[in-house]
Input
Amino acid sequence: MKDANRNELTIEEAGRVAALARLKLSDAELEAARFELARVLGHFRQLETVDTSSVEPVFNPQDSVNKLREDTAIEGLEREQLMSLTEYVKDGCLTVPRTVD
Amino acid sequence: MTYETVIGLEVHVELSTASKIFCGCPVTYGQEPNTKCCPVCTGLPGALPVLNKNVVEYALRTCLAVNCEISRITRFDRKNYFYPDLPKAYQISQLYQPIGRNGWLDIEVNGTKRRVRIHELHMEEDAGKLMHDPWEDQTLVDYNRCGVPLLEIVSEPDLRSAEEALTYLEQLRGILQFIGVSDCRMEEGSLRADVNVSVRPAGSNEFGTRTEMKNMNSFKAIGRAIEKESLRQIELLNEGGRVIQETRRWDENKDASFPMRSKEDAHDYRYFPDPDLTAVHVSEDWIDQVRRELPELPADRRKRYIGELGLSDYEAQIVTGHPVISGLFEDVYDLTKLAKDTASWIMGEYLQLLKDKNCGPENLSLSAEDLAAVVSMTAEGKVNRVTARKVLAAVIEDGVKPQTYIEQHGLAMVSDASLLEDTVRRVLAENPQSIEDYKNGKKKAAGFLVGQAMRALGGKADPQLLGSIINRQLSEA
Ligand SMILES: [Zn+2]
Output
């Protein structure tokens, strides 16, 4: 993807993007995703042709800076409320499949 | 071939703010799982983070204390990865514009000074805690720690031995405790380090391939892990092998490190600026205000103690090792004006008490006034040191005042010269054999006689004074 002038996205690259997003795609889905991603990249390549040398980069859609809060602790959610969002609960904890190490 | 070890440290420190970095949940340790959480820190849809002002203040304080250049505009970025301890599937951190860069700390090991450069210092949020279910093949997740503010302090690979790495860490911990940004309790995980180790032929300017050991939270383990890892790499190279860049896990029980089974080949965190947070503009005024409020740092204090109070390097090092101990030294010195004596009591009896009680300096209730009284009484010869030790123990156990205890137990030292002379005369009369031994060159006999006289006086005499009386009477006998 480093080559800005390339139109194609390889199936390996599409597979890697899917893996990073933890998506398990069939061959047909991967082929469709590859096509759509290539089009998205095409749009950005089009944007890249605009001369932005005199434009300040925008990091944030808002102009405001220093939106800070005072360091005051407040109570958040009751544990029951939080845990009611999932059925995977044990001893007040969320449970997930065993993670390595 | 001789090799040189090259070490870099990434230190993570949890800040002791009242609330988390992007939400109002309290920062506390050891609570019931998932009771200090809200929609922001558990990543519920629609929740928006707002930066805690105090986190920026603490970061600025730390930047100044470790000599970092402060970014006038600093921003947050998202680091994307999937792991059950990270409910948003991204960690808010700083990659492109961290708050601090290009700092340094001076350390001294075995008389050699070395400047350890600090590459950068940035703010980020901590992740949750994973615990293995002892009964079922699954993992339990506690989100309480999600969003606890962290500073990450990244050193350049400027350290050359385990000893240097530990000295740097100790110094850094002392600074963080002094400026009050963290309690740095390693056993609770509020200070942990990722350790990068590589080796290269001595004299070479190129770096070898490095390995990383993550999340280490004890000095002992870090020192040991560096030693063993550099040995492992050297052996590997000597056998004609090569080091692979990898993350290894240190197993303290097996005293060895092992490659982590990592499914994620080369990380790809896809960092990008977090659109939910605004940039932070740090004004000169803000920096000046933080600088004015910065307490005296341990290194400056040590310099002052050595230069003005006449302490040795070692004494100065010990009494500035922890902010509570340093505060105690300051206060006791103010009351007694006895720098050497105060240092001696703190390094001796006081540290021994902490060890015996297995507690930290913040948990031992001993007022500066009481310690000052004990130090002064001993220095003035009102009680001898052995007695004074008993007094100190009673002060701590029963909360009595030193003066009261001494009066109640009749412990004041015998300063009546004629009583001392008479006692010595009697002891000599009772021990003719010792006098004989002494005259035959057995100088130890004098020590025995001092012991006998001290016992006769109930331990309430100045041993030096007693010794000189005995020596004089022996020479006259
Ligand atoms: Zn929260």
